[in-house]
Amino acid sequence: MNHRCEVLNEELSFTMHAVRAHSSTLIICMWAAAGATRSDHVPVKPDWSND
Questions:
Q1: CA–CA dist 9, 20 (Å, integer)
Q2: What is the pLDDT of residue 3?
Q3: How high is the pLDDT of residue 1?
Q4: Backbone CA torsion sign across 27, 28, 29, 34
Q5: Which string of b and e fits 15-26 if b means at least 16 CB within 10 Å?
Q6: Which parts of the chain have pLDDT scores under 70?
Q7: Quick one: pLDDT at residue 24?
């Protein structure tokens, strides 16, 4: 039982290290995707200088 808990704890800590290592990359990708989506959907401001 105790050994099982130790193994589970090691796996959990390994998972957390992997998540922490990839989180910054994931956040950058999310920001890039959000930026690309946002720039696609920005409405074009009407040009009133023609009046």
A1: 16
A2: 72
A3: 58
A4: positive
A5: eeeeeeeeeeee
A6: 1-2, 36-51
A7: 74
C-alpha distances in Å from residue 35, one per residue of 24, 28, 30: 16, 10, 8
Give whole-number Cα distances, 2 to 5, 8, 14, 15, 19, in Å: 5, 10, 18, 20, 26
Q: State the Cα–Cα distance between residues 20 and 17, nearest whole angstrom.
A: 5
**Is 0.90 topped by the overall pTM?**
no
Question: 3-class SS at 30?
Answer: helix
Six token digits for residue 5: 């808990």
Rounded to whole angstroms, how far apart are CA atoms 19 and 10? Answer: 14
